Amino acid sequence: MKILRLFLIAGLMISFSAYSQTQKRVITLDEAMDIALKNSPTIQKSRIARERQKKFLEAQLASLKSRFQLNVTPFNYSKTQTYDDFTSSYYTSETKSSSGNFSVTQPIKITDGTLSLQNDFSWRDNSTSSGGGNSFTGFNNYLFIQYTQPIFRYNQTKMDLLKVELDVENATLAYSIELMNLERSVTQFFYAIYQAQQSKDIAKEELSNQKKNFEVIKSKVEADLSAKEELYQAELNLASSNSNYENQLVNLENSMDDFKKLIGIPLDEEIMVSANIDYKQVKINLKQATESGLSRRNELRQRDIDLQRAKFNLIETSAQNSFNGNVRLSYGLTGTANKIADIYDNPTKSPQASVTLSIPLFDWGARKARIRAAELSIESSEIDVQSAKDDIIINIRKTWRNLKNLERQIGIAEQNVKNAELTYEINLERYQNGDLTSMDLQLQQNQLTEKKNNLTTALINYRLELLNLKIQTLWDFENNTSFVPKELQSDISANENFIKNE
Predict the structure, then answer these.
(1) pTM above 0.85?
(2) Would you list the domain boundaries of the chain?
(3) What is the pLDDT of residues 201-234, one digit of tens each?
(4) How far apart are CA 96 and CA 211, in angstroms?
């Protein structure tokens, strides 16, 4: 009965284990990346920053269109007492009025000028106690068109627009970089789990072999065909393999927790990863890889943007406390009447033209110092650009060399696994025939385990280096296509069309 109970318990445990395995969620690398894109706080913040800059661009483009404004004062009342020096007497003034101002303002991007149309309309009821009591009740309307043009200075309207456009581009570049960094992190954690799974399977296979070996030596000892020392060594080998298997299970669970946290899924959800790390050599031209990196890397474009901003700063600094001016032209009609219908029976024409110049005389060298500081900032940005180019070239070369080295390592590791498997089979047969000790067989088992783990590591490192090269060059050498994160492909195209249409 006890034996039957043990068999029933073992059967239930096996069934429960099989059920648990079937309930585990299998995740591929692409699925893990999609989950991380939705849940990653870093990506969410970067996406928000990009959308924020796009809204600033929309606002800047909208500000270049005609602006309509209406200001209304429905009622105003005042009563004041004023002393008149000419008559040496006080007089009282009482005023009731209503007024409104309507304006249309159109910035001119190409010239940095401003064209405006304004209409000021008012009604006034005014009476005074001086001069026998004067009073006026009527309407006033002033309609005029005006053009203002800055001269001897940079086009601030164009520069403001360029700044916002660069901010949008920089935010998009930063978002793209975060996407690629996330892809690198997800891939590394994903393959860490895959390697832990493989290590666990290899350890499980080793444990199974040790169990078989233990049964063989046990039967031999019981039949007095081997010394008891061999059984003690077999027990030690079995315990060591079991401990190694438990360690691999712990490593796998720890890797699972880190991975779940990274991509943003519940820690209590049971998952396993599915990956294809079959080796396929990818031909890579170092010259093409370097040229692609120098022409496509987002970080290099960011350094160019920093340089452009430094140049903008120099232009703005040079304009401070410098010779400049304004030209203003306007033409208006003013009408006044007691009745609104008669307001333009006899209008007054009001043409105006003015040129205003600002001529700085002496500022104790402040402007010159600011300009030099801005020039030094440009020089620093130029150094950053060149340094970024050198870093790109060096990193691409390092990655290319690593890939070449890994190709050789994979070939060696595959051959080592084949040799270790054949050696283990030969020595296992010798062990079963009593020509080899348990300790010697354990050494062969350890060597086989090591070679299998080395092959898995080399294959995973090759996949990671291919990804690293793809991020370094923004070129997918496996598929021989340009690499742009899929979430940005349609977005970048839409953004370019939006700016172009505006």
Answers:
(1) no
(2) 22-55+159-310+371-501, 68-108+113-153+323-359
(3) 888 988 888 888 888 888 887 877 777 787 888 8
(4) 108
CATH superfamily of 22-55+159-310+371-501: Outer membrane efflux proteins (OEP) (1.20.1600.10)
Among 470, 471, 463, 475, which Cα is nearest to 407's? 463
Residue 241 structure tokens: 């393999």
Residue partners of 487: CB distance under 8 A and separation at least 6: 37, 179
What separation in angstroms does the CA of 158 have from each of 22, 171, 495? 62, 20, 19
Residue 112 backbone class (left: φ over 0; alpha: ψ -120 to 50; beta: rest): left
Beta-strand ranges (E) seen in 85-206 are 89-108, 113-128, 135-151
Written as six digits, the tokens of 501 are 């249409």
| Residue pLDDT, tens place only, 273-330 | 888 888 888 999 999 999 999 988 888 889 999 999 999 999 999 988 889 999 999 9
Cβ count within 10 A of residue 212: 12
pLDDT above 70 for 489: no
Residue 502 scores a pLDDT above 70: no
What element of type H or E holds 27?
Answer: strand 25-27
Residue 324 token pair = 């400049």
Whole-number Å distance between alpha carbons of 41 and 185: 14
pLDDT (tens digit per residue) in 48-87: 999 999 999 999 999 999 999 999 999 999 988 887 777 7
Q: CA-to-CA distance for 67 and 103, rounded, in angstroms?
A: 8
Residue 76 gets which letter from DSSP? Answer: E
Q: Give CA–CA dist 31/273, Å, rounded.
A: 10
- What's the farthest any 2 CA atoms get from each other in the chain? 145
Local structure of residue 223 (DSSP, 8 states): T
For 436-480, write each residue's pLDDT tens digit.
777 787 788 888 888 988 998 899 999 999 999 999 998 888 888
Q: Could you give the CA distance from residue 223 to residue 225 in angstroms, rounded to a whole number?
A: 5
Per-residue confidence at 377, pLDDT binned at 50, 70, 90?
very high
Rounded Cα distance, 308 and 317, in Å = 14
Q: How many CB atoms lie within 10 A of CB 281?
A: 10
